[in-house]
Design brief:
Layout: H1 25-51, H2 57-92
Helix pairs in contact: 1-2
Length: 93
């Protein structure tokens, strides 16, 4: 029994230049840092208002809780990205 030869492949189509589909990773990290800074600044401003007798304790507490959650999510994401990069670098060795 003889195996039939594999036919030759046709010419590869010309590749289009790489066009990113969205913001870069650095842009996303910058936007995240800006959002965290804004949330923390808002929480601090509301806490200052409470201390000066002009603000609501509930509003300040909610703003601080939201900022804390954003910080926690960012910390977990950073940890996972760091772990993924470490795993990638270990597979290169």
């Amino acid at each position: 029994m003889q195996i039939d030869p594999i036919p030759a492949l046709g010419a590869m189509p010309e590749a289009a230049p790489h066009q990113p589909h969205g913001p870069s990773f650095a842009d996303l990290m910058g936007a995240t840092a800006d959002a965290l800074t804004g949330a923390l600044s808002r929480a601090d401003a509301l806490a200052t208002d409470v201390a000066s007798g002009k603000g609501s304790i509930a509003d300040a507490a909610i703003a601080r809780a939201k900022a804390d959650v954003m910080l926690e999510v960012a910390a977990v994401a950073a940890s996972r990205v760091s772990g993924a990069i470490s795993a990638l670098l270990q597979t290169q060795a």
